[in-house]
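Ligand-bound model needed. zinc ion.
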Amino acid sequence: MHELTIAKNLIDLVCEHAAKQKAERVTAIYIRLGELSSFNRALHFCFDRVTTGTICEGAKLHIETVPLTVYCDTCQCEKRPGGRYNFRCFDCGMPTPKVVAGREMQVSAIKLDFAPSAWTSARLINSNCQSAVACFD
Ligand SMILES: [Zn+2]
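Prediction:
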């Protein structure tokens, strides 16, 4: 199951990162997920399964949806397209194939329980996940 592999990789990275910080437990994972990604529901579905037995077990999963944004060459600015499968500029009607945002899957933050105030930015996680999620399109 493709989603399960991606979810597992993601949790592995979070665990690895948390271990480096010498955290005992991960209490929350914050993920930015592009509107175009079909991963949202799948991630919730897989989450319990892939976190069981890890230091992420019992962590709260927070998903922030990143709206789809495209770049219109004709208007020369960023636009919100009319719909998920409508990549034409609202204003000029030209195709806008350049997706600026909306495909990403990033761990934006994790919360660790050894110090409640310790918020760790986990940007290093991006590259791996992003290439994997691209397969869904
Ligand atoms: Zn335009």
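The first strand starts at residue 26 and ends at 34.
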